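At this stage, I needed to go through a protein sequence along with its fold in C-alpha cell form, as given directly below:
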Amino acid sequence: MTDERLAVDATTPLEECVSLTKQWVEAHVPVEWRDAAARGGNAAIREVRGRAEYEAWYPVFGASGLVMPTWAPEYGGVRPRVAGDARGPRR
C-alpha cells in the first residue's frame, strides 16, 4: 500500500470522483475488508480485521484525502485546526 492522495478537488466532475474513489478502494482496501463490508457492514469488517491491521492501514486512508475532516465544511468536513489549538475544529 502506498500513501496516495486521490486526485480530485471541487472542480472534478461527480462521475470522475466516483470512478476514482472506486479505483482507490480497489487498490488500497484489502478485499477481505470489502467483502465483509458488503456482507455485514462494520460488525463484519471487525470480524476479519484486527485493530493493529486497521492502525497500520489508516495512514494510507488518511493520505488519500477521503477522510471526512479534510473535506470542505459544505460537504460535511470541518475546517482544519490551527497548530496548537486544543479547542477542536473552528466553527
